[in-house]
Amino acid sequence: MFKTVTIHGLRGLRHLTLNQLQRINLIVGQNNSGKTTVLEGLFLLTNPANAELLIRINAFRKIEEFHENWYALFGQRLSEKLISMEACRSLPSDYQDHLKLEIKPLVSAESKRYVSEEEKTTFQNQDFQSHPLLYRKPMIQGLAIESSSTSNGQTKHTRSELRLGKGLIEVIQGDRGDNVMNAIYLTPGLVESPLVTNLLNNLLLRKETDKLITVLQTALEESVKGVYLGKNNSVLIDVGYDWLMPINSMGAGLVKILALIAATAESRDGVLLIDEIENGLHHRSQLALWKALIAAARQYNVQVFATTHSMECITALSAAYQDSSEVEDVKLYRLEKTEPQTRTVDYDYEIFARAIENAWEVR
Question: Where are the domains of the chain?
Fold first, then answer.
């Protein structure tokens, strides 16, 4: 599990630190405050040697074109600075590590040419930066991803690269090392996609139906007696009728709850990242969703990071912990974009529950 995370220079985040991270972490804030970028930074940190994750976080945003300025999508003026991240983690093997990750531009040496003072004087009435004979911008040929993991006084280093050529990305992978965390990143569209159906099928094929039903019964009022695979990998649910019901006939709320449980099971002993968790869900279903997700996270030892714009979603999270004796494993983080860094305001359960009770704004 992540304990603290610092992100510097990724997309619009100049500098941000999240401290005292818990099992359930809900991130709120205004549009363009960096909520999704935080999830992307965490995703990169779960497997720092995997350069392909840089491609994936762009694909999650529907950015799939590659050109000479594609590197700028990861951070403004990347050629003049680094993207860096740090994290303290506790891992299933009962040890902690300190992880560092840096993303650097790969610059072609022969593409550099700087204008001399004499040339500046000669062409002082011209825009010498755009003069083809006198100035060339440093050409970014790709990105280098360098990471280090320190534990028990020992440090391991890895390096991977992405290189751009003729519209294609070449991936040069480094040593994976032993600091990879199990992780799944869910965007709003992925929750309804065949990918999640496959995750649920995997859960059933591993004969973990009992765990799934236990989690569902924790969250739902109706009696769930079983979940089964039907023809063509369809999912059927037993709610006490004389016949099994196709899961898609039970409403979007139950489908999404099942999807998140399946994703949590697939992320066991790792991290589940959910962007816009309330998307497509009626506010009356959000309490059941949180109850199911909390129960599944505990069942499978998963740390959850989710974003939302919805006050109903925050209220539902508070209500899900109302009768719980484990309120210490949830935290709310509000991002406030300031210069030169993004300010974070964190609320433990007692504080944000009191804020909701008194109608204070916490988003």
Answer: 15-47+181-363
